[in-house]
Specification:
The protein is an alpha/beta fold and 649 residues long. Helix content is 32%, strand content 18%. The chain is built from 21 helices and 27 strands. The strands form 7 sheets. An 8-stranded parallel barrel has the order 3-4-5-8-9-10-11-12, surrounded by 6 helices. The chain has a 5-stranded parallel beta sheet with strand order 15-14-13-16-27. A 5-stranded parallel beta sheet has the order 18-25-19-20-21. Helix 1 packs parallel to helix 2, helix 2 packs across helix 4 and helix 13 packs parallel to helix 21.
Length: 649
Amino acid sequence: MSAPAYAQPLALGPVRLRNRFVSAPMERNYCAPDGSMTDEYIAYLERRAAGGAALVFTEASYVRADGKGRIRQMGVDDDDRIPGIARLVDAVHAHGALVGVELNHGGRTAQGVVSGFVPVAPTPIPCAVVGGEMPEQLDDADIEHIIECFGEAAARCEQAGVDVISLHGGHGYLIHQFLSPAYNKRNDKWAEPTLFVNRVIDTVRAMAPGAALGLRFSAFEGVDGGLDTATTRERINAIDTGRLDFLDVSAGNYEAGQWIIQPGEWSRGLLAPHAAPYTRDFDLPVGVAGRISTPEVAEHIIASGQADFVSMARTLHADPEFPNRALAGTRYRPCIACNYCIDSLAAGPVPCSVNPWVGRELEQPAGPAPAPVRVAVIGGGPAGLSAARELAAAGHHVDLYDERGSLGGDFALASVLHEYPEYHRIVDWYLAELTDLDVVCHTGIKVDAHTLAAEDFDAIVLATGGTGPALDVPGVETRRVRDVREFLASGDPAPAAVTIFGADREAAAVADDLLQKGTQVVMIGPQETIAHDVGRRAKIVLLPRLAAAENFTAHLSSILVRLDADRAVISTNGREHTVSAPGELLVSQGIEPRTELLPALRALTPRFGVHSVGDASGDGGSIHAANITAADVAARITATAHTHVEVLA
C-alpha cells in the first residue's frame, strides 16, 4: 500500500518539506507586548514542530510599528528581534521542521489604541470591524519606506536562520488593500494594484536571497466591490510570481471574516476548489487553507491535485501532534471549529476550547505520575471527561460516574444542534481515550458519599455541572416550562411554536436549530443583543440567519413580567406591553452550580482532597473553562500525591 500523498516530501524553492503539513501563520498573541519573542511562544511553536509539521510559521508579523494590530503580535521591525527569532529557529530545527515567518503590515486594520500610531492605508477608508479609526493616506515617500521595511524585516529573518518567508497579501491587510478595488481608490501610480506587492517582492528577494519566498492571498474577498475570483486571478497573473517559490490560498477580509476563519457548519476543505486553478496553471507549489481538519480531507486535496500542501491553523492549535498521528494512522484530538481561539485575540494570548494546554506548554506535566492513586470523578460532561482523561493519562486509576445513560453531559446535547455539527467529535474522542486509558465508566448511576466511601478513593473530583434557576413568574402554571437543557435531553420533536426566555448563547443556538425545523420562535431576553456571551466570529453566520428568519421574533432588553396561555406581558426598558408568546416556554437563564454532594464528600476526607471543576465549581460557562479547571485539578492531584510519596520516603 502506497504512502498517503500528504506524507510525500515537497520542494519549496531552496528548501524541502518533509511532508505536506504546514502549521499556518495563525495569530496567537504569545509575544511580549513590545512584539519580542517569549519562551511561551517558542514552546508553542516547538510543540508543533515536534508534532510532525514540516513547516512551522509564526503569525503575521509586523514590519513597521504602525502596522501592529494585536496587543502581543510578533514584531520583525527592529534588529533587537533577531536573537529571539534565532532562539525560535534553533528550537524548531531541533525537531526537523522548517521555520517560516509571515511578513505583514496591517494598514487600515491596525488600531492606534494597540500600535500607538495613527493607522495608514492606500486610501483613507476606516475598518469598522476593529473600531473604525480613520487611517491616513500613505504618500509616496511613506509607501517607499514601508517597502524598505518589508525588505529589512526579511533580512532580519534570514539572519536569524528563518527558512521560509511569506508575504501576507490577503485577509484585508496592507498588500491586499493595494490589490483591492474596494480599498485602493488612488489616482497616482500606486493605483496600479500590483505595483506595491511587486516592489515588495523585489526588495525582499534582494535582502533575503537565501530564503524561500511565497505569497499568501485571498482567492476572493467576499464583500461587495471587492476582489472576486476572476479579478483576483487577474491580479495574481500580473504579479511577478516567477520570483516566488510558492503560493498559499486563503479567502476573505475583515469585513468578511467568516471566509478567513470559517464556521464549523461549513464544509471541510471548502477553499480547495479555489486553489485548484492556481495549482494547475502556475509552475509553483500551491498551498490552501480552510477547514482542513481531518487526514481524509488533507489527503483528498493533495491526491486530487487541488493543492500541493495544506496550511492548517486551528487543527494544529487543537492538536500539535496531528501530523504525526495522521502519518501513523492514530487518533488525534479534533478541532471543533468553535472559533473561541480567534474570538479571544482582542483580549490577549489565544487559548483553545478542546486543549487546555495550548499556550501553557511550559506548564504541561510531562511523563507519568510517580505515585499513581485512585480517583473518583463524578460527572461525565466536558469537565469530568477532561479530568478523567488527564488523570488517567498520568497513570492514575480513575472511576467516572454519571447519572445519565451516556457521557458527554450538556455538551453532548449541544452537539445535535444545527450550529454545532463538529461538537460530537470531541465527545467521541474523549470516549475513545477513556477506553484506551482503562477508565472505569459507570453510567446511569447517581452516586452518593456512601457509594464512594466503600471504594476508599484517594481523591474525588466533582464535575456535576449545574442546573437552570427556577422561574418565578406569575402565570407560570398556564403552560409547560422547561430549561433548554431539559428540552434537549428529552429528545422531543420540534414543536410548531415555542417561546424562549433568554437571549444568551444557548438560547440562540436552540432557536436557530428549531427555526431550521420549521418552528415559530419568539425570544424574550433581558440582554441587549442576541448571544452577547459569544465572540463575533463564533456567531458571524448565526446572527444574520436569525435576522432573516421569517418565523423568528425577538424582544430584547425585556423582562418577563407575567405569562398567559399564549401571550406574555414583558417590560422593555421599563415599559410594559403584551406580546404573542406561543407554545411551551423554554428557559435559558444560565446555570447554578450543583454542589449538594460537596459536604458529604468532604466528610470522607480523601487523602488528596475533594475538588470541584467546570460548572460545579462556578468556573465553567464554556468548554474551555471546564477543560482548564479540570486539567489544573488533575495536575494538582498528581503533584500532591508526588509530594506525599516524597514525605513518606
